[in-house]
Design a protein that fits this description.
single chain, alpha/beta, Rossmann fold, 2 domains, seven-stranded mixed sheet, 10 helices, globular
Length: 274
């Protein structure tokens, strides 16, 4: 009886307008990162959801550490949020999280390409960085890699020797930059979770389409003979109190097809997988 009552209350808490009251109440207490991720209690809920899911997957794969990456840092608000949330998720899951931010520093590159880069939306120099101001707010967890992404992805692996890729945010606006950032998944030295959460920022406007921008970069990447494939995050809205949240439509997964067969599941045969 008590369990049935509790289940009914839990279901009710997810319904409007009760879910608003529930979230307000949860904000008043130091709840877990997992709870905050479920209830979108974060300045960057996409980052928190991606990090928490990556940490859970890392536990399944017995990984002790992962990398969290932001492509397109600009003013740094996203990178600082990623840094904060990484600290909380690390404490909760016991998985160390190293944070990396990639940016050109001077804003969008001098040469913006054809229609694929949405030249009707963006101009060279948009979204510059105040490097000194940003660096003063970064801690030892976070590294900033400045330069053209075509070069910095190689430096990332060669100089930083990062832990396996766990979560990646793409916010570089341009098709060409996003395409080059996907070298992250094809580099000879890359390591990644079998299922790696991704967030693509530039999808939420009527101006975006499959023939330009991030969507085109994703499509072309999947057409190549790579062992990694990028697809929308299946079931990401299921069971969530605010399943209509727009950012959920920006959540994807990079699936390492070759790595899937190497995972040894720590569960008895016959039990349900994740």
């Amino acid at each position: 009886m008590i369990q049935r009552i509790w289940n009914a209350v839990a279901r009710l808490s997810h319904e409007p307008p009760f879910r608003l009251v529930t979230r307000f109440m949860l904000k008043q207490f130091p709840v877990s990162a997992q709870t905050r991720a479920r209830w979108d209690i974060s300045d960057r809920p996409a980052y928190l959801l991606g990090l928490a899911t990556a940490a859970e997957q890392a536990v399944v794969e017995k990984r002790k550490a992962i990398s969290a990456i932001e492509f397109g840092v600009a003013g740094g608000r996203g990178l600082l949020a990623l840094q904060r949330e990484a600290e909380e998720v690390e404490k909760e899951y016991g998985v160390a999280i190293k944070v990396y931010g990639f940016d050109l520093k001077i804003g969008l590159p001098e040469l913006i390409g054809d229609y694929r880069d949405h030249p009707e939306k963006f101009r060279s120099g948009d979204f510059p960085m105040d490097e000194e101001k940003l660096r003063s707010k970064l801690n030892s967890r976070t590294a900033l890699l400045l330069g053209n992404v075509r070069d910095t992805v190689n430096r990332f692996f060669e100089e930083h020797r990062p832990p396996p890729i766990g979560f990646v945010s793409f916010d570089m606006d341009l098709y060409s930059s996003t395409r080059d950032a996907f070298r992250l998944f094809t580099h000879a030295s890359k390591q990644m979770l079998v299922h790696t959460p991704l967030y693509f920022d530039d999808l939420g406007s009527f101006t975006y389409h499959d023939h330009a921008g991030e969507l085109l970069a994703i499509h072309e990447f999947n057409e190549q003979d790579y062992s990694v494939k990028i697809h929308p995050w299946a079931g990401v809205r299921d069971g969530r109190p605010f399943r209509e949240a727009p950012y959920l439509g920006h959540m994807f997964m990079a699936h390492d097809l070759a790595g899937a067969s190497k995972v040894v599941l720590d569960r008895p045969p016959g039990t349900l997988p994740l």
